[in-house]
């Protein structure tokens, strides 16, 4: 049995199994996530403090299209199966993108479902998440990386009903610089540009019906979380941005979930330095579409 302070993980994602009364915690679980990837593991617990595992849920074979940068797995239940959206660095062109795996069990094994990454082949993309619109159509919301475009953006693309591929062209929802809270930074490879990060979008339908998006960026080089909201209630926006951050204590790439007692939580990893990152759980309160840390 391990406690949160014992578990090195980035990009934690909680699947709440209400039938079993258990939490399944997925995330970037390679000790050195910046290099060669070994796969993904899951931790299983009956509360948010004590975990059994890690249990392997994905190990690639030699034919898999990536062997590096295995990042940010999310698991969603869709039409009778579990689908894992995760980021991989492609072998064929060295570009990152989100691919989709499938399993009949939360314990895996998850096997390749999409042929390769579902994000545009020639883009540096990451952190795809599933969103089902009001008409039941599946979308993937993902980040177009700052390493390619400078001012990172968040995009959406409609998926085929079987989640095997994207259909149509991606739509840019907004760029990081359009929100009031992220700050720019210089990078040695892009010294003449202002760079802004977008990471880890997660969709959340508030109790009042508003469509919210949690996402991560940096404030004065500190990893942080903020919220944006769709004016129309549709994934294509227009998107407006909360002025205040939700979390700005060197943690990010989070998600929102209701625990087994229906209390709202934010989970993310903090601090944002390898190998010290750990999962943390923050109780929240929601009032009229506004989400704040519970006092």
UniProtKB/TrEMBL annotation:
Site (Important for catalytic activity, responsible for pKa modulation of the active site Glu and correct orientation of both the proton donor and substrate): 127
Keyword Plastid in record: no
GO molecular function terms listed in the Swiss-Prot or TrEMBL record: hydrolase activity, hydrolyzing O-glycosyl compounds
Pathway(s) annotated for this protein in UniProt: Glycan metabolism; L-arabinan degradation
Pfam families: Glyco_hydro_43
Gene3D superfamilies registered for this protein in UniProt: Glycosyl hydrolase domain, family 43
Top-level lineage group: Bacteria
Gene Ontology biological process terms in this record: carbohydrate metabolic process
Entry's transmembrane regions: none
Family statement: Belongs to the glycosyl hydrolase 43 family.
Protein name: GH43 family beta-xylosidase
Biological source species: Gracilibacillus halotolerans
């Amino acid at each position: 049995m391990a406690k949160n302070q014992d578990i090195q993980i980035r990009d934690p994602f909680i699947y709440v199994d209400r039938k079993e009364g258990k939490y399944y915690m997925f995330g970037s679980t390679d000790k050195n996530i910046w290099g060669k990837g070994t796969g993904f593991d899951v931790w299983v617990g009956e509360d948010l403090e004590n975990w059994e595992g890690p249990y392997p849920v994905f190990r690639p074979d030699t034919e898999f299209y990536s062997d590096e940068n295995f990042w940010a797995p999310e698991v969603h239940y869709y039409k009778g199966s579990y689908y894992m959206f995760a980021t991989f660095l492609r072998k064929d062109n060295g570009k990152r993108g989100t691919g989709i795996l499938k399993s009949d069990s939360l314990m895996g094994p998850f096997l390749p479902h999409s042929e390769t990454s579902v994000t545009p082949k020639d883009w540096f993309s990451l952190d795809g998440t599933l969103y089902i619109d009001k008409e039941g159509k599946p979308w993937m919301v993902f980040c177009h990386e700052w390493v390619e475009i400078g001012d990172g953006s968040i995009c959406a693309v409609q998926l085929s009903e079987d989640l095997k591929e994207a259909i149509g062209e991606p739509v840019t929802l907004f760029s990081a610089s359009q929100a009031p809270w992220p700050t720019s930074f210089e990078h040695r490879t892009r010294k003449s540009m202002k760079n802004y990060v977008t990471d880890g979008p997660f969709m959340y339908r508030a109790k009042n019906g508003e469509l919210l998006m949690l996402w991560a960026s940096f404030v004065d080089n500190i990893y942080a979380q903020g919220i944006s909201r769709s004016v129309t209630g549709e994934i294509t926006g227009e998107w407006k941005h909360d002025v205040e951050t939700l979390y700005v204590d060197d943690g990010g790439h989070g998600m929102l979930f209701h625990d087994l007692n229906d209390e709202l939580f934010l989970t993310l990893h903090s601090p944002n330095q390898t190998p010290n990152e750990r999962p943390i759980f923050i109780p929240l309160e929601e009032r009229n579409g506004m989400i704040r840390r519970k006092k």
